[in-house]
## 1
Amino acid sequence: MSALDAPASALPGAADTIVAVATPPGRGALSIIRLSGGQSHEIGRAALSRWPDRPRQAVLSEVRDELGQILDQVVVVRYDAPSSFTGEDAIELSTHGGVVVPTTVVAALIARGARMATPGEFTRRAVLNGKLDILQAEATADLIAAGSRAAQRVALQQLDGGLSRRITALREKVLEIEALIAYDIDFPEEDDGPVAPARTLAVLEALESALRGLLATARGGELVREGALAVLAGAPNVGKSSLFNALIGRSRAIVTPIPGTTRDAIEAVIDADPWPIRVVDTAGLRSTTDLVERLGIEVSESYVARAAVVLCCGDDEASLRAATESVRAAQRRRGADENPLIAILTKCDLARDSRIDLSALGGEIGATAAIAVSAESGAGVQRLLMTIGEVLDNTVGLPELDAPVLTQARHQHAVAQALAELEAFRYAWRDERLPATIAAVHLHAAGDALRDLIGGIDTEQVLDEVFRRFCVGK
């Protein structure tokens, strides 16, 4: 029996009533406290002066500690199992904000029998009680962490079950192939005759094609979720940090005339259309004997190797050529692909060399595009953002924000495993001419891989990993 097949009450700690503050700590108008579990209503009645007569009714009440002292005036909403987020009896308290009020209210609920929830425990219970599947639970965390509208749309689509339905449909195709093979094995002499191999092969080819198509969305899904990595690279003091600040619209990188000021990478996500861009300001690429700066340069090379697009910065022709050479050398040292480069002539407002033919220079140094910008005046900054989007469109394709996409390594691994098992079945069945009963083992493994993607998790450790990055209270 898998962890998701077991009743929630059979899992460690599942019978406890849990409590947590669901809103961020700090000064604010309101805080929301969630309580879920078999004793939540009993604990709520003991702590509150007024109790809702029916589910989902909001009631103004007072919450008291175990000594009867009033802690706050709250609004309480009651939820009855199974019609709650977790599928259990639950209540939500809207208290005044700050630190002291919600902390003392939580303490009063713990004193009456609740315990503090662990990160993601409310969502975990929703999964275990059949309110969500694993993909929808992951989408909940992605929606909270979304740093762009594109990431928000993809997470909402997944939360609505779009990816789950797609995976379910693909798994049903695996079962269809298994059924065709089983019919051929068990009923070879039926009136309809044996199943034609061409029929089974047609379903198999369509399924493999669909899995490859879904697997192809993984790159775009990662870029939407994390932001397409655009790395500012070049020699020190050519204007990378000034351009970084101009791109994100506020000063985050230190800008000084002293070479080597940036010692570590600084990141920010720009909510651009259609791709969110995770722009990174890095230490200048140059030879140095300074140990700290050398460590910063190694970090820069690591980012350059992983970048979806590298923004090679220089304030004249010589520094632009040097930036390109440094980037390509860093990619070779790291064994990385030579990803697209955009040559950026910074400080164009200073007109240091107005004779530069950027288009010709870009072609010479192998840049996909060449742009002149000024962080001081803002000239060329919007054009740069548009160019980054165009380069990503050409290399990755337009993001499919309203279609099921794979957004995490776990998704990609499961779909790739299912595809590999189907290919192994084809080889064993068609090329090796093994008995169908033996070759069908691969079909079963493919179905299991897709089932596990949605929720057939067999180990508690996998669940722990899925919910590890959740916030407490969710």
## 2
Amino acid sequence: MTTTTSLLVIGAGPYALSTAALARQHGIETVVLGKPMGFWREHMPAGMFLRSGPDWHLDAAGVHTLEAFLEERAIAPTDVDPLPIGVFLDYVEWFQQAKGIEVHEDLVAHLDKPDGRFVAVLDGGDRVVADAVAAAPGIRHFASLPDWAVSVPPGRATHTCDLVRFEDLAGARVLIVGGRQSAYEWAALLAEHGAERIDLAHRHDVPRFDRVSWRFVDPLVEATMRVRGWWRDLPASERDAIARRFWEVGRLTLEWWLTPRLTSRSIRRWPGTEVVQFEETAGGELTVGLSNGERLTVDQVVFACGYRADVARVPYLEGILDQVRVADGFPVLDEAIGASLSGLYLPGFTATQDFGPFFGFVKGAPAAATLIVRDLLARA
């Protein structure tokens, strides 16, 4: 079966749903393919808290916001501080229903543009033909691992995005490689689920834990929507200053609510270190050598090494990548988040190089939707 549409949205996370909602609001025929909030539901633990507040939402129209969702349910913002992932998922489900977004849980196996229109071939063999495509690939495609990860036996190592249930590691000795938010939150979760010992090894000092405000992002997002090409036209010194602010708030500072959860004696921190040796003994034990001379025997390794863009790792983009300009793994985008292949938009994490670090957060979703739909309407 072949379906024809004006806009095909690939993905059903925050950026995809935000774009689909605004496109439909402006009368653009839209088909959405993906698992609603699939990465969030399948690759984030149920006990996780978000780093954002109730002012971050998906609605470019500013109506169906997270604050409106909480108000409708008589939930005070102070009751969701910090914000549980489950509350945000409930909000997104409410948003999707309020906007009338139908999501088809079909996966795109192949995307091509053979004759002026895009053709998406689905896993089941059906096809969707579209004038434009907004693809928001989940960041699981971009999970970063150290070079030595390939030497870890299968089943004995995982990235944080693939470790969302901790019961099986009760009584285990776990090494977490990394020292930012996910590393320390996963350490807390592992301790709360009975891990015998959790070692955190990272090259930098132990971050500080404090309450921070993300309000400084608001004028940056507003400028992005108000001035075409705002980020790329900023002097390098100003872009660097903004990037440093994000680094200070998001990387050098971790959430205050982690502090009481990290007091367990099972958690040991090894700042200023990195893994320099790794081996599996004849008895099947994993032995890790740190740069400070410490040797650890572990049952499981968890990589909290973040994400690094590489659009070549998105399977369904393979058929069109030869038509997409790429720099350092990122697509080169125009002022409307459009790729060099006309009609293809790549919002979200893949847009952070050309639009700033705030496009790696939910906060940027309504702005991305605005830029894309504005461009689609101008082309009509």
## 3
Amino acid sequence: MNFNTWFNKLQTRTAINRGAGLVAFKSLLARLDNPQINYKIIHVAGTNGKGTVCTLLARALTNAGNKTGLFISPHLIFPTERIQLDGAEISPDDFKRAAEKVLSQEIEPLNFFELLTAAAFVYFAEKKAEYVVLETGLGGRKDPTNVCVPVLSIITSVGLDHTHLLGDSLEKIAAEKAGIIKSGVPVLCGNLPPEAARVVQKTAHEKNAPLEFIDAENSPGNAQKQNVRLVCRAAKMLGISDDAVNRALETAKLPGRFEVFKCGNKTIILDGAHNPPAMENLLAFWQKTDFAGKRAAVLCAFMKDKDYAQMLRLLGTQFTTGIVTAVDSPRSLKISLYPAYRPCGMTREILPSGWQFIPDVSTALIRAQELADVILVTGSFYLVGEVRAKLI
């Protein structure tokens, strides 16, 4: 069985919120000789920004001479992006071998993310990693990555996302994120909304965990500045030199995070702003760039469990030309299901004026380039990955 066929079979496992659970997952890791205790872990949670912080911090640790693992999600094009060592993706053979080793010890059925997490733990132990930067999959408290005892916990941000699973308020979501806080382990946080900050402070106090909030402006458009400040402060806490951090900031590539491609006389920008807080940050940053004054269009797709209506409203305030498409995922919001966009005072749900539906991504991308000189591709990392595969 080739790798793609094998991995697609893994993806048929149950969703991220169903699986063995933490107790059974810990038992599985014990049968695997607890690979997660063999290296120092930096555990990162947050509504947005955690992938960026993880990638930059892992690169800084590598630059400082540490053998460093990185576990992130989702992947944009190929599954091996999820598990990296010193910036190099795991090979398909190593990926499959590590996962099969986990499956050999499976008793309680693992969900897809539990399996990947355990496989990453196994791989990093086999490769004798010194540090591992570990991104949570969903929330934090119940996430399979939360079996670890890290040397540093980081909460990048708290916003309304996955409310059907994490809670319908900032306080409830903050409680889930704060679930990664461990007794006595230092915690570093971005500039959180006050109601979220109070929850994190209470949890850190109860766990006797030293807590520090970075000094950063908490407003749309400043998300990347906050991410960089988190990385710089975390690096200092870990004893990483400024030179190692600066080289990481200068050289690290962040696929799908305001990534710019030139296609002839067209410019295509990829950014996986997949929830309203991320979309607000993206659009605030967009207004600060030269692209805002050019003939621009947006190409977007959304997952059906996201607040796509709010994201469409935000996009509609800045883009008069837009195309909505659908990606090949069971979670994708298909064209036929869109209630889409309801302008104030109207009873009929429509898209913003000048927008259109084009179900096929390839056709939608071609049409977007016909309509504009600059195309922003956003709304879903699945769409960003699909378009990126066509551009590289």
## 4
Amino acid sequence: MGAAHVLTGVDCSLYVLEGRTPEAVVFPGSVEEVAALVALAGEEGIPVMPLGGGTNLGIGAPPARLGLVLGLKRLARLLEHEPGDLTATAEAGLTVGALQAELGKRGQWLSLDPPGAERATLGGVLASNASGPRRHLYGTARDLLIGLTVVGADGAIVRGGGKVVKNVAGYDLPKLYIGSFGTLGIIVEATVKLRPRPDVDRLVVARFHDVKEAGGAARAIMASDLVPAALDLVAGEAVRLLGPGGEAGAALLIGVDGILDQVEWQCAEIGRLLAPLGLAETRVLDGPPRDLAWRALGEIGRGGTEDVAAVMKWGVLPAQLAEMLDKGAAIAQRNGLRAALTAHAGVGIATAVLAGDGAHGNAVVATLTEWRAMVGGAGGHALVEWAPLAVKERVAVWDDPGPAARIMNGIKARLDPRGILNPGRFVGGI
């Protein structure tokens, strides 16, 4: 490996997680080195935690032991780009931002926009199934993956899928690793589908007096002939990130892309459609102002910055979102906290950020517990995306998986019989 790529002792302090310090941090420079390290760790019974850009490192239960942190930042090459086939193959440590920049030189892009694209790596995005507002139209990583190279728990290099879009032979095993958080194997390379870059990309910010009006507007958009690329609800403290807006208490963000005539028609149609639904103000953003608005919302609450006390993600039916955001804000206020709320209106995924100057742990725990009960009562699910260790010790990170736990544990036992890959951090203690 070379001494420069192996950290031990006090040098591991930058990689402390949930109060645990790694026994070593290593940065392999090839797929073969990753395989050799994992095989060695398996022989010695040392747990291995893969690390990309660290943007989703806060997700998961606290590890019982943080053995070997395996950083993939040196595996950061774009291996192949076939513009004619609209495909690309890249190493897992390549950041999404760097990948998009390279693809953009040929007028193409990977239609994923996870928060923190400058830090988020391709492997990390796949392992956490991270996505952003454009999942409304373009889907998630699961929809864009064609092929995958993974290092198994025994050090074997396993390749699945292919390098062409029309690849339908056999079981689609690569998708098993999407969203597995490194518990089944370490993603080292991936082949993905691309799209041509749209000619025009604009953001319509529509403000409303309350979240119920904004929710009704979202339903109207989805029932119309419009085809937005993104459709996000913004409520609570998060509205402030959009700048001054009078007394508007909620907003609907509609991303529109495509050819110029089509985009201009959709922007005009959005204003006409929403005018009788309580629309207080509308703005159309392009260029840097558009990017700044999306980036501000994507970064809200990430990494426990400033006075953020906890971050929870909800999954409910899209028709329930406005009601959940309204109730969630009221619960936080009743416990003396503030809530910044954003949601992908078309898919039913919300991010709820708790904040408060010197927030008391009991209030945070009470709010998260009430939020989980509220979401569960609506038939949805909740995940503590980030919280201090003291809070995680009192509030479960994941919902109870129920009967699915038996199947998940069976898969884990087959692929990682020694239990060395990121153990204990995933659903059901996997």
